[in-house]
User: What shape does this take?
Amino acid sequence: MGDIILEARGLTKEFKGFVAVNDVNLAVERGTIHALIGPNGAGKTTCFNLLTHFITPTSGRIFFNGRDITGSRPAAIARQGLVRSFQISAVFPHLTVLENVRIALQRKRGRSLDFWRSERVLTSLDTRARELIDAVGLARFVDSTAGELPYGRKRALEIATTLALDPEMLLLDEPTAGMTHEDVDRIAALIRKVAADRTVLMVEHNLSVVSTLSDHITVLARGEVLAQGNYETVSTNPAVVEAYLGAAHG
Amino acid sequence: MAAIAEVAAVRAARRNGIVTGTVVMTVLLAIAPFIGLYPVFVMKGLCFALFACAFNLLLGFGGLLSFGHSMFLGTAGYITAFTAKEVGLDPALAILAGTAASAALGVIVGGLAIRRQGIYFAMITLAIAQMMYFFYLQMPFTHGEDGIQAVPRGRLFGVIDLTHPLAMYYTVLVIFVAAFVLIYRVIHSPFGQVLKAIRENEPRAISLGYDADRYKLLAFVLSATLSGLAGAVKAIVFQLAALTDVHWTMSGEVVLMTLLGGMGTIFGPVVGAFVIVTLENYLASLGEWVTVITGAIFVLCVLAFRRGIVGEIAAWWSAHRR
Ligand SMILES: Nc1ncnc2c1ncn2[C@@H]1O[C@H](COP(=O)(O)OP(=O)(O)OP(=O)(O)O)[C@@H](O)[C@H]1O
Ligand SMILES: [Mg+2]
Assistant: This one.
């Protein structure tokens, strides 16, 4: 094993007696694309919520770059370079596409408590925002209101916004869900491109995306780690096949 | 592409509309005493308009419903009245002292309440405001039911004699317009942009690294401070600081003014405040019925004109200009 950027030890989350995540150990190697897969309700989103402290674990510890971040505030975790996206597309619906991306750039710029300054100072961020918007294929929509974009384009916008922070590591929760074929290809290519100098942990149901992109896979079922390894190892693992078939058959 | 050009055009039109509206409003207010309006009546409207604008900054742009804003209006009123009358401060300094007191109270109350969401936030602000009410009822310096009366208007900066009605009037107007422009600036500042993002999608804003609570707290303190400014000026104008300003009904009234005029619009609270003050003025002879009538307006507003007067006009306008 190489250099570990993100590590979870014995991560457990109990919701009123229901164990959604059970003693999960996860180690993500720097510079890789790591996929977290599993049937519906396996606990993948809950894992993301725990890793970014959107919910507090019942037990277990989380380390980012060797630092214990278990008790850090979610915004502080983001500022350390571990940035997440959401399963349900998360944009600022009444802001334009440009403004959405600018909000992220503004955070890196700082001085966001300046209530006496005109927002015109933010136009210096427009060039960079347009580049990012262009990269996800939204150039035509720069001045559209984000809420009016079709679903797939909202996801693309969310990725552009996340990338605007230039995070060291991205957690993407089903980045291609609800997208058309051609959008899926574009986003997959984009993820590969941005992962060149970053680490990505992603939840993804599209197995062709998983197989082409990921270096390492962790399979989760009923809150527990079922298998780990590369695509070949995992996809031929009988327990994994069973879990997927079992889930498919209800 | 047509739709895209339109977003930009609509925004540019809105911005021009606001600049024009501000100029027209200022001119109208500046000539008001000469077109038959009583300065005292307009000053009352301006104090409440400022109070409602400050409240709207928090509710309309921060998405936070405080049900205890009377404490900021009233606290500043008491401190200003006390420092002007008993300490003998220059009116400018007395207003400053009152405003600062409300700002400090805003920091404390905001610190306690800001983490609560929705109805819990409203409840905790109401609870603290009730405590403040009883505090002011008991404290000797407020003179309880009588209030602090006969507050001297004094000379502003030792020069301008505020006992002269027009001098008082234009002082109030300058303060109001300055605060109004400041609120517009806050909404359209880097801070305002983040505040809007937090209101639209708080988890996303947090995931981008914004400590949402800090931004909400700043919005709360700004709102409390400007509400305090309204209360401070009001105490000088009416030469009185009384319990009505810290009573919970005052917190309800500012909600009504804001909703009636149009929450989240820049002119709405001004219109709402003047409508309510006018109603109260002309219906004063009806006594208790005023409460019933304002209550009925409130119900009508919530049921039929959700966007409020200015909000409905703006919506109608943008639907008809196509
Ligand atoms: N806040 C909560 N309270 C109670 N139960 C929860 C909560 N959040 C998630 N769960 C439960 O935990 C389990 C795991 O949910 P989670 O959303 O993590 O699954 P997932 O793997 O992301 O599924 P999907 O593929 O459908 O997105 C589910 O059974 C869900 O109902
Ligand atoms: Mg999920």
Remarks:
- DSSP finds 13 helices and two strands in chain B.
- The longest strand of chain B covers residues 155-156.
- Chain B touches chain A at residues 1, 3-5, 7-8, 182, 185-186, 188-194, 196-197, 200-201, 203-212, 214-215, 218, 222 (CB under 8 Å).
